[in-house]
């Protein structure tokens, strides 16, 4: 057996092994994610869709006016609004489900600028646009999330819908 034949045999074996691993992984994803969802949908037609939204604007206004005979006036006004544009604070207020929805919609836009803006806002990328420490874990979880939320994924079926979702939900 020549050297080239040995190399070809080794590469063929590695390729087959890789194909087997991919097939097993696909089977596991189907068995644990897609099959139970399809089974539930065929068993009953009660779909549970939850939408949570929180909006909070705290404001406090105090006004005192004191007038004496010398016509001296003292006025005190205080307005306090909770608004924070820090990306980590605003992204932390989102649920994991909302983060996956925003991430998926940004990806569906196909626009590099939108994807970058969302990834930085969610804390998945650093400010210098390099992947953060939790990006790999989130991307892995997102693949599973997509299979478990196919009803929602089907609603974002165009670039326009994806852009509208991102603009409406980006913190």
What are its keywords?
171 residues, elongated, 2 domains, mainly alpha, 60% helix
What would you note in describing this structure?
A two-stranded antiparallel ribbon has the order 1-2. With 171 residues, the protein is mainly alpha-helical. It is elongated, with a radius of gyration of 27 Å. The protein has helices at 3-43, 87-92, 96-109, 112-121, 135-148, 150-155, 159-169; strands at residues 62-67, 73-78. It folds into 2 domains: 1-44; 87-169, no CATH class.
Task: Report the mean per-residue pLDDT as an integer.
Answer: 74
How would you spell out the order of helices and strands?
Answer: HEEHHHHHH
CA radius of gyration: 27 Å
Strand content: 5-15%
Task: Give the count of helical stretches.
Answer: 7
Across the major sheet, the strand order is 1-2
Number of extended strands: 2
Shape: elongated
Classify the secondary structure makeup into a structural class. mainly alpha
Instruction: Give the helix level as a range of percent.
Output: 55-70%
Ordered list of secondary-structure elements with their pairings:
Layout: H1 3-43, E1 62-67, E2 73-78, H2 87-92, H3 96-109, H4 112-121, H5 135-148, H6 150-155, H7 159-169
Antiparallel strand pairs: 1-2
Helix pairs in contact: 3-4, 3-7
Short description:
The chain is built from 7 helices and 2 strands, in the order αββαααααα. It has 171 residues and is mainly alpha-helical.
């Amino acid at each position: 057996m020549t050297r080239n034949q040995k190399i070809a045999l080794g590469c063929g074996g590695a390729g087959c092994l890789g194909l087997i691993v991919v097939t097993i992984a696909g089977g596991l994803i189907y068995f644990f994610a897609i099959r139970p969802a399809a089974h539930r949908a065929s068993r009953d037609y009660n779909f549970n869709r939850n939408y949570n939204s929180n909006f909070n604007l705290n404001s406090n206004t105090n006004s005192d006016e004191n007038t004496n005979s010398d016509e001296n006036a003292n006025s005190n006004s205080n307005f306090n609004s909770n608004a924070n544009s820090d990306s980590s604070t605003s992204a932390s207020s989102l649920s994991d489900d909302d983060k996956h929805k925003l991430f998926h919609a940004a990806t569906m836009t196909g626009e590099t600028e939108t994807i970058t803006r969302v990834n930085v806002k969610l804390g998945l990328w650093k400010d210098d646009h390099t992947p953060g420490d939790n990006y790999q874990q989130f991307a892995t979880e997102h693949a599973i999330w997509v299979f478990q939320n196919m009803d929602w994924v089907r609603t974002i079926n165009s670039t326009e819908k994806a852009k509208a979702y991102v603009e409406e939900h980006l913190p």
